[in-house]
Amino acid sequence: MTLGALSQRAASAPYSRPMTETLAAILPVFLVILLGHALRRLRVVPDSFWMPAEKLTYFVTFPALLTANLARADMGAVDWGPLMAAQMLAVVGMAALMMRSRPALGRALGLSDPGFTSVFQGAIRPNTYVGLAVAAALFGPAGVTLTAICIAAVIPLVNALAVICLARYGDGQGGGLGAVMRGIVTNPLILACLLGITMNASGLGLPPIVGPFLDILGRAALPVGLLAVGAGLSAGALRQGAGAVTVASTAKLVVLPLLVWAVCALMGLGAMPTTVAVLYAALPCSASSYVLARRMGGDAPLVAGIITAQTMLSATTIPVLAVVLGTALD
After folding, report:
1. Cβ density class 4-15: b for 16+ within 10 Å, e for less
2. Phi, psi of 78 (to 5 degrees)
3. CA distance from start to end of the chain
4. Tens digits of per-residue pLDDT, 2-23?
């Protein structure tokens, strides 16, 4: 079955079934995250397991999943141009809003410049593991492909914006701007998207042996990635800057999705691309924000609090938003 056929069948999926079925499709994603947190707390596996597991997901299994889906996609059946534009316009708009609000946030919250960089990252950077799992649960392969297109548009942009912000307001510039920029252009997720799109556009697709190989690797990406997300949550980090955490969480989980929804409506995107785009915008902040904050003089403890709070809150906000989208776009 082609992606076009899958898209047509999946487009009505969340809107033709009851709210309970929509929630039942999404909530297991967060149960896997909760399981990862429990495994870490109970020491069922040693702490030394989690960092290699996350690296394996980031560098191997997740890129395999993205490459395979984009290489097979029927790009003629996907509004990829407007979808990418909607994501990028909304992210740039949110970044501009946060920069404009910096003096006011500093006065109201007593927020330092490094603290502002953490709020800035928390307002724009998505956790793609959660996004792909939610899209797969709601729409299957078509949702994964649309989310991969969102990743190709957003990941380079948010990394560049975060680096610019930290270069201006970070404390001490511990890492080197050149090294961080090299990290952006060698990002395995970006490279995987480019490889998949190139294979698709060339007509090569996935060769007989390569395709099954990538499929096997890709099947491990989401469960291991979600478990690692849960393992990285820290209850102690929630005590960091309640006001700043609230601002970043409201911006990321509420305002940014509404911006994407408005842009999608203006561009006339269909129900399924709009739903995938809005839910992608509503993802909690990525754990890589913590690494970048430590490298470039941001407030790393505050980022850890933002990541933890947003991940916990998104277990409610994402299912609710999916139901609202299903009702509004039906």
Report:
1. eebbeebbebbb
2. -120, 130
3. 25
4. 444 434 444 444 444 556 777 8
Digit-coded pLDDT (tens) for 98-156: 999 999 999 999 999 999 999 999 999 999 889 999 999 999 988 988 998 999 899 88
pTM: 0.85
The amino acid that residue 147 corresponds to is T
Closest CA to 323 of 70, 26, 78: 26
Q: Tens of pLDDT along 241-258?
A: 889 999 999 999 999 999
Residue (of 285, 238, 268) closest to 81 by Cα position? 268
Joined together, the tokens standing for residue 82 give 């407007």
Taking alpha carbons only, the member of 277, 212, 188 closest to residue 68 is 212
43: alpha, beta or left? (left if phi > 0; alpha if psi -120 to 50): left
d(CA 143, CA 136): 6
Instruction: For residue 322, give every residue at least 6 positions away whose Cβ sits within 8 Å of its Cβ, in sequence order, or none.
Output: 14, 22, 23, 26, 134, 138, 275, 279
Q: Which domains does the chain have, with CATH numbers?
A: 48-325 (1.20.1530.20)
Q: Which spans in 76-127 are helix H? A: 80-109, 113-124
Round to whole Å and give the CA distance between 173 and 230: 29
Helix axes 242-250, 300-328, angle to 10 degrees: 30
* Cβ pair 83, 135 in contact under 8 A: no
CA distance 144 to 85: 18
Nearest to 317 by CA among 282, 290, 293: 282
- Give the type of residue at 280: Y
Scan for tokens 């970006």, then name that residue.
190
| 65 within 8 A of 217, measured Cβ to Cβ | yes
- Percent of the chain that is helix, strand, coil (3-state, to 5): 80, 0, 20
Q: Which amino acid appears at position 278 of this protein?
A: V
Q: What is the DSSP string of 200-237?
A: HHHT----TTHHHHHHHHHHTHHHHHHHHHHHT--TGG
Distances (CA, A) of 58 to 93, 104, 188, 232, 287: 28, 37, 7, 14, 11
